[in-house]
Specification:
The chain is α+β, with helices and mostly antiparallel strands. 25% of the residues lie in helices and 30% in strands. It has seven helices and eight strands. The longest helix is centred in the N-terminal third of the chain and has 14 residues, at 4-17. The two termini are 23 Å apart. 23% of the residues are buried.
């Protein structure tokens, strides 16, 4: 099953990557013709990017790249981050498994040529049998020869360690609020436009080589992030982060 909105979203993000804040992007008519999709499908992807602050829609003028976001790091780079594994029994169901070209945007993230081959996997994550997340993974194909859908369902990171001799060492991940499309909501068993957390992660091995790019949607009604913060006297004069909304994440990955 191909998730059309994901394909449209990736194209829009590639267009946005090549522009500066305030620059216009092509019209809906042009984008629909380029991608071969209907206007409702395109608008669903655009609506998501507007809601998450990536695009700005101005009535009568068109769509523009939004101003750059203010970024706050949750953990300092020299702080060893880690978290206990999330509670519950985590399982996966592979929805899509194929080889694709990296393209310009994901190629940059993984430090690969746009023509490089990737293994693309869409999988549904469950906790105690209930769907909780939809993941889109991109892995350089030459790092995972012989990878199968069964490997993705039984434990991808164990496969990397034991079969590919790849040790993941660190990752950079952003977290943003979003809402679910009709297709995503159906897969996750929630109403359309339900709130969700969007995770965007690049994972690297012990040599600093990017080995994975993942985009994940976690149900907002079922998923919460909690931080353990080390505090000291003389902290800078700014508000402390809300511990119910920020935190370490590594323990949920498998």
């Amino acid at each position: 099953m191909e998730l059309k909105r994901e394909r449209v979203r990736e194209h829009l993000l590639a267009v946005i990557d090549g522009r500066r804040p305030g620059d216009a992007i092509p019209s809906e008519r042009t984008l629909c013709a380029t991608l071969g999709v209907s206007r409702p499908t395109l608008r669903a992807a655009v609506d998501e990017l507007v809601a998450t602050g990536v695009l700005v829609r101005e009535h009568g003028r068109g769509m523009f790249v939004a101003p750059a976001k203010i970024t706050q790091e949750l953990v300092a780079e020299d702080h060893a981050a880690g978290a206990p594994r999330s509670r519950g029994s985590w399982t996966s169901t592979v929805l899509e498994f194929r080889t694709v070209r990296a393209g310009a945007r994901i190629g940059r993230k993984l430090k690969l040529s746009p023509a490089a081959e990737l293994v693309y996997v869409a999988r549904l994550r469950h906790v105690d049998g209930a769907p909780i997340a939809l993941e889109h993974l991109h892995v350089p194909a030459d790092l995972v020869p012989g990878l199968t859908p069964a490997d993705m369902e039984s434990g991808f990171y164990a496969h990397l360690r034991e079969k590919c001799r790849i040790r993941t060492a660190h990752a950079v991940q952003s977290i943003e609020p979003t809402v679910l499309s009709e297709e995503e909501a159906e897969l996750l068993g929630v109403p359309v436009l339900s709130p969700a957390l969007l995770f965007d992660r690049i994972t690297s091995d012990t040599g600093g080589r990017p080995v994975e790019y993942v985009r994940s949607l976690y149900r907002g009604d079922r998923y919460r992030i909690v931080s353990r913060l080390a505090l000291s006297d003389g902290a800078a004069d700014h508000p402390a982060p809300d511990v119910s909304r920020t935190g370490a994440w590594w323990g949920t990955v498998e």
